[in-house]
Amino acid sequence: MTVVEVDVSGLIDYEGRVAVVTGCASGMGRETARLLREAGATVIGLDRVQPEVKLDKFTELDLSDEGSITDAAAQIENVDALFNVAGISSGAGDPVTVVTVNFLGPRLLTETLLPRMKEGSAVAGVASLSGFRYRENVESNTQLVDTPGFSAGVDWCRLHPDLLSGGGYQISKEAVILYTQRQAIAYGLEGIRFNCIGPGATETPFLRDTIAGRGIEAINKIPKPLGRLAQPSEMASALLFLNSDAASYVSAHLLWVDGGFSGGVAVGAVKSDR
After folding, report:
1. Tens digit of pLDDT for each residue in 224-268?
2. N or C: which end of the chain has fewer CB within 10 A?
3. pLDDT tens digit string along 34-78?
4. Cα dihedral sign for 6, 10, 13, 19?
């Protein structure tokens, strides 16, 4: 297994900026927090457990709990860069919980913090290869994205179990993409950018949950044009780019960080059932 160490020092500057990172205790979130500190940011980490990575401030957060989200947001005065990294796989909870943690919770956190974001701020989220064909499901995704608030979103999920097939993971990530693109247009004139990444299979604790829920074959059968899994720092560096001034004219963008999978599918060089 190739181990990739990412160093953004000298390439991406976050000096003087306040960055909020969800899921900072492990995987992509931990690497995002680490790289942000290296880039000079003041880092506020949010997670269910205290992380080992060094932060400027840590606040406990449970994205499945509306009260926890509003309490955590109340402790944040201003934000220049929001990184919605936390998420769970279909092997880590029931379908409604998966959608809540992956989409409804981050949506509530984002919308609570938006009034504290000024021109030049940015939001970056994490989608997935599971959302590769999101355009085909815009109608159902729109219903979820249009729900008026956290509780209404949970109720919608409970009323539409057929749309949460496969454990709720796919629709949760498709909703992240649609929400990102719509918010980018809604807040563009205010100078706030929204983007997200679409990771390929990445070596994180999240991946272990996926294997536990769906089996190792679910990972093995995903084409990997670079011949390996991604490392968390490779996703984190892409997130830092999207929320940095280096991407100041990038908005409403889904950046595939998948080792060539999506491009290969687009030109027929990679075969996949996704």
Report:
1. 888 889 999 999 999 999 999 999 999 999 999 999 999 998 899
2. N
3. 999 999 999 999 999 999 999 999 999 999 999 999 999 999 999
4. positive
Residue type, 93: G
Q: In DSSP terms, which residues pair with 193 in a beta bridge?
A: 122
Residues 229, 166 contacting (CB under 8 angstroms): no
Instruction: State how far the Cα of 124 lies from the Cα of 194, in Å rounded to an integer.
Output: 6
* Residue 162 in domain: yes
Residues 107-150: tens digit of each pLDDT = 999 999 999 999 999 999 999 988 988 999 999 999 999 999 99
Cross-strand pairs, 58? 45
Report d(CA 33, CA 43) in Å as an integer.
Answer: 7
Say whether pTM exceeds 0.85: yes
Range of the domain at 152: 18-265
Alpha helices in 39-168 (DSSP H): 66-74, 95-99, 105-113, 138-145, 150-159
Tell me, what's the pLDDT at 95? 96
Flag whether 161 is in a domain: yes
Q: With contact defined as beta carbons under 8 Å apart, do 229 and 202 qualify?
A: yes
* 12 neighbors 246 (Cβ within 8 angstroms): yes
Per the structure, the count of domains in the chain is: 1
Rounded Cα gap, residues 162 and 55, in angstroms: 41
For the annotated catalytic residues, the residue numbers are 169
